[in-house]
Amino acid sequence: MIEHNYYQLMGLELYSDASVVKRKYRELAMLYHPDKNPDIIGAEEFFKILTQGYNVLSEPDQKMRYDMMLRNFLDKSSIETIINWEAKERKNAAERIRMHKERKRQSIIEHFEEENASFSHKLRFVIAILLYVSGLLLAYNNWFLNLLDLSVVFIILGSFMFGLGAYLIANNRYQIRLYELAKKQKDFIALKGPVRLFTFLFLITPVLFLMFTSLTKTIHLAYFYDITVVDRIDEFPDGVTYQYTVRGVEIARQVDELPMSIEFLGDPENRKKAFRVKFSRINPNISEIITKEMASTLVLESK
């Protein structure tokens, strides 16, 4: 006995393929699942019928028997009855979907306005941006906190902060966009989540990080620099390491190669005397190795 026309309930053409049934069921499940609609009367019962229909239509043998029974049932009815019945089923299904969307729309509006009354979404957006930027700055060379050997800890903390900030920014934009569409009574079901914006921010962050690193080094060594002697120079296959001391703290840095120096070419055994270190007074870790001739020129210019 045919109790329900599952094809019509799902809004499908009669005898649709199992793959089409599966795709449509997933779409409807997002709308009518009891966990997503705890306060909607009838949602659970309708979801049970949808699930029952999916179980029948997704199993080849059961689908074949059901299709045969449905054909026999429809053959016994007049064309007019079939048309009226199908139209009524489509109308009922469309009305149920419309009512669900309307309840969902009202829920989105009420939830957004309640949150906005307690804590403005604009303020949340500002805080998210500050968190994102602060994390970026903190990850770069202990910009705010300079606690000796704990630099790696703060780089990890900064990375977590800008990742969280990126998510909050994306989520905030999504919530506002969802609210705007709901207010305008436009389709919000197909609105994508914050994944795209979050992915963009998370991927663009390394680019910003490198730009900020380069810009900061340029500014520090152009306007806030001092010059000191080189304590030690070591050459390795993958680069050159130089050491210097600032305020009693030994600092080591690495470069790909040493700059050219007349004294260095003439006296390789005493090479460290041919070079100086130009470092930032604000952050001595920011530095570059220069020739003694360049250092002399900078000293004369500063005078």
Distance between the termini: 102 Å
Question: Looking across the biggest beta sheet, what order are the strands in?
Answer: 1-5-6
Assembly annotation: single chain
The number of helical runs is 10
Our Rg estimate from Cα atoms comes to 34 Å
Question: How many structurally independent domains?
Answer: 3
Average pLDDT across residues?
Answer: 78
Largest sheet: 3 strands, antiparallel
Indicate the percent of residues in helices: 55-70%
The tally of beta strands, per DSSP, is 6
Structural class: mainly alpha
How would you spell out the order of helices and strands? HHHHHHHHEEEEHEEH
Please mark out the parts with pLDDT under 50 across 5 or more consecutive residues, or reply none.
144-148
Which word captures the global form?
elongated
User: How big a fraction of the residues is strand?
Assistant: 5-15%
Concise account of the structure shown:
With 303 residues, this protein is mostly helical. The protein has helices at residues 6-9, 18-32, 43-57, 60-75, 79-118, 121-139, 151-183, 195-223, 262-266, 292-302, and strands at 225-229, 232-236, 239-246, 249-255, 275-280, 287-291. It has three domains: 6-103, Orthogonal Bundle (Helix Hairpins); 119-222; 224-302, no CATH class.
Task: Write structural notes for this entry.
62% of the residues lie in helices and 12% in strands. It is mainly alpha-helical and 303 residues long. It folds into three domains: 6-103, Helix Hairpins, CATH 1.10.287; 119-222; 224-302, no CATH class. The strands form two sheets. The chain has a three-stranded antiparallel β-sheet with strand order 1-5-6. Helix 2 runs antiparallel to helix 3 (43-57) and helix 5 (79-118) packs across helix 7 (151-183). The longest helix is centred in the first third of the chain and has 40 residues, at 79-118. The chain is elongated. The N and C termini lie far apart (102 Å).
